[in-house]
Design brief:
The protein has helices at 10-22, 33-42, 59-68, 84-92, 105-118, 152-162, 171-178, 188-202, and strands at residues 2-6, 26-30, 47-51, 75-79, 97-100, 127-129, 132-135, 140-143, 146-147, 210-213, 217-220. By secondary structure, the protein is an alpha/beta fold.
């Protein structure tokens, strides 16, 4: 079972990581909300443990953003707060469970196992924009039934764009959601990967779905009838 732990208290995070590892979990750790959100969008997890008070991006915003991206990984929220209002906020945003610090490690493990057994709610998984289809679980992409091989980064860019069809996405938005926070290169890398994608999903099929909106960014439109050229 793979768990994402997003907790800014490093000593607590390490204690939880070691304990969960001993319980048979494979644990990825992030100490801020931006990194945590990036990991949640890049990797498949069975469950995530998400602190609310985080640097960079708070847990509420991380949860809201990944749910908007149709990522339904069961989420356990952690917080030092104990008001009903905070619990309501978390559940309204799509949390599946809630623990207030301090908490029993045994209770945390029991609840995480229960979330894993329950699994994510049955919601649409495969993405489709026109005759372009992407399966996040199988990591496959096709147009009009014809398979399109993509690199891991091309897949991530396309997945983000397919979650926002017919919406203009700026380079900064794509960079923030697809690249690691530690990336310190130019945002022109987005233009490079859009070019790679355009050749594979459009030019190769004689269609135009990935548009450049001058001065604003890129937009993925729904088209049909694409056949390999």
């Amino acid at each position: 079972m793979r768990v994402l732990l997003v907790e800014d208290e490093k000593a607590l995070a390490e204690t939880l990581r070691r304990g969960l590892t001993n319980e048979g979990f494979v644990v990825d750790v992030a100490h801020d909300g931006i990194t945590g959100q990036w990991l949640a969008t890049e990797n498949p997890y069975d469950v995530m443990v998400l602190d609310i008070m985080l640097p960079g991006r708070n847990g509420y915003d991380v949860l809201k953003n990944i749910r908007e991206l149709k990522i339904w990984t069961p989420a356990m929220m952690l917080t030092a707060k104990d008001g009903d209002y905070d619990q309501t906020d978390a559940f309204d945003l799509g949390a599946d469970d809630y623990l207030t610090k301090p908490f029993s490690f045994l209770v945390l493990v029991a609840r995480l196992r229960a979330l894993v057994r329950r699994g994510a709610p049955v919601r649409p998984v495969e993405l489709a924009v026109g005759d372009l289809q992407l399966d996040p679980n199988k990591r496959t992409v096709s147009r009009n039934g014809h398979s399109i091989p993509l690199t891991a980064k091309e897949f991530a860019v396309l997945q983000f764009m397919m979650r926002h069809p017919e919406v203009v996405l700026s380079k900064a938005e794509i960079l923030d959601n697809v690249w690691d926070q530690a990336f310190d290169g130019s945002d022109n890398i987005v233009e490079v990967y859009v070019g790679y994608l355009r050749r594979k999903i459009d030019v190769a099929f004689g269609v135009t779905s990935l548009e450049t909106v001058r001065g604003m960014g890129y937009r993925l439109m729904a088209v049909t009838g694409g056949t390999p050229q």
